[in-house]
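hey m, so remember when u said the tokens were messed up on ur end? i reran from scratch. heres the input so u can diff it against urs
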Amino acid sequence: MKFLCVYRPGTPENDTPPLSAQDQAAMGTLIGDMAKAGVLLATEGCLPSSKGVRLRLDAGKFTVTDGPFPETKELIAGFCLIQVKSKAEAVEWGKRFLSVVKTGESEIRQICEQP
């Protein structure tokens, strides 16, 4: 089963690194553990929303909105794509991730795979 884990930070964006050097090392350990366990397919962090855009289609009309996006609850700071045996296992990896970043939320969604 594949799952997309999307991370939303619990704090407003700024231009400073999101993790301390110690937390970056802990994140490196977590990513290494995921790779060793064979569950990690991809993971990346996102640049600040000031470098992004939102694209919306409504009634046939496109709207493009440049960042930054002020609502913290709407920000996506990074993602991880994993392949695990169950949703429960995905949740356990998500808990480990949130323990490293210490704040925010991770939405974990199963990927629809064709049989």
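this time it looks ok to me. The mean pLDDT is 91. if urs says something different then somethings off w ur setup not the seq
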